Amino acid sequence: MAQLPDILFYVFAFLTLACGFLVVLNPFSTNPVTSAMFLVLTIGSLAGLFVLLHAFFLAAVQILVYAGAVMVLFLFVIMLLDLPAEERRKVKKAGLVLGLISVGAILTIMLQSLLQSSFSSEAAPTLEGSTIPLGRLLFTQYLLPFEIISVLLLVAMVGVILLSKKDLK
Amino acid sequence: MKIGVEHYLTVSIILFCLGLLGVIVRRNLLVIYLSLELMLNAANLALVAFSRFNNDLDGQVFVFFVITVAAAEVAVGLALIVALYRKRRTAHVEDLTLMKL
Q: pTM for the full model?
């Protein structure tokens, strides 16, 4: 008798991979808006996987920051540019074949190394990714990276304002 | 069968390769950018899985940083794409072969 979290893992994993596939290679539409909406679904199911891994805070951040902020920004830009659906141009056969071969090789290498490594799966995981220990770690041990990240956000903000000026010099 | 770290890593690896495939196959600048996000999310999933099964919270802090950097990266990248589109009227990578605006 399978447990409920195990069933949920398979459901969310399937949803993640199916929606991820539809982001990249949607056979019905090459419209960027469709890809962006499927990426939102992928991020949502990844948040489900995070909950199954007991990383509750990260699941919330994933929904808020990724599905909320980042993807809305993406959709704004896509609709602002008013892109036509990606036209079917002649793709260079050699480049496509070489790309597929390299991706397949990387996939094979990573899955092989996963198969050959042994994980001690007997010990039941006890880590609870609740907010209080995570915040404590973030503001004590990782205080310096945290401050640097905030400076990085400031730099990105200034850069975006500079880039989006009308007369770009 | 018990769900272990290897299950999560398999999902993460396949998702990463899907993103890589999108970067290589698709020719629209914005879709390439979406595929990059897919790859970042795959890395996040691997980090959270390792964090959970190694009983170490550091992985989750790292994912927190990755999400922040990704948000900054998206903002700057999209501003660049909009600036480029204003000049060139295209988002097709094969038309964008010059660094000069």
A: 0.90
